[in-house]
Design brief:
One of its GO terms (molecular function) is sequence-specific DNA binding. The protein is built from ten helices and eleven strands. By secondary structure, it is an alpha/beta fold.
Amino acid sequence: MTSKRPLLGSINRLVAFEAAARRCNFTRAAEELLISQPAISRQIKELEHTLGVSLFVRFGTRLDLTEAGRKLLSSVTVAFDTIENTALTLRPAVEESGVVKLRTSVAASNWLLPALSDFYAANPDVLLQLICIDESPSVDISDFDIEVRFGSGNWDDGISYPLLEEVIMPVTSPKFLRQHSIRKVEDLYNVPLLQLATHQSPLMDWRQWLPNQALDNPIPTLVRFYSTYSTLLDAAVYGHGVALGWKYYVAEALVRGDLCPVLPLRKTSRLKEFLVVNRQHVSKPHVKRTCEWIRAYAEATRVRFDNI
């Protein structure tokens, strides 16, 4: 049977590429996929040869993605996430199991992911299904147990508990800040600004920070638009410009030194991240424990990064 996708060849090449790109190391990717390191290298070389572009820049054992590699990784990640989420919906429900379905935006999942290993260790009987979407979840929790949702908290489809307030600050990479003199708000007119194409919060719009500047006017400010918040923050880390960072999403990157604040500017609103619980599932023991853990983790996050 002739392949319908001759350009891509074996799907194993994309699996190998995604693991290597995510871990920035062929050896660790091979360990994850339970294959040899030479097999990973061979599949990557075959994929690069097929596409006619280099996907990685190699510095000894360390890997960095090329522009082509970053573009491919973005598409592959979305495709794999879509397949995984679809597979989860096809699995038969097991009422007596410890399955907990948690829906969240990709941005909010980046806040949760660093601590989920602690959750799994403390709750080995809970099978947490994390369903991530690019935008904030819609106001319909009927197919899920709980979700992390951004907004005012005035929803009728579930019970809402506030997690973290909205605190927005301009951020960029240390290298970008060294290369550009930004000492006052007016200096932001002279550097690239990274902007979400669509957003729920007014504070994520640069017009709230530069009220005399229209975003559709490229002079004097260069505005670069992004469709997802995770991609926008990656662009800030790579030094593409100044982004508006939600404090608790960028806190880890600030601590690591991947990002740094631009000017002592902060803005807050009445909007928050909320934990929304399906009313029909709120009494389930596994759901209750998961909710308690997320709320405790949010409080610990708030305390830990209070001075940022």
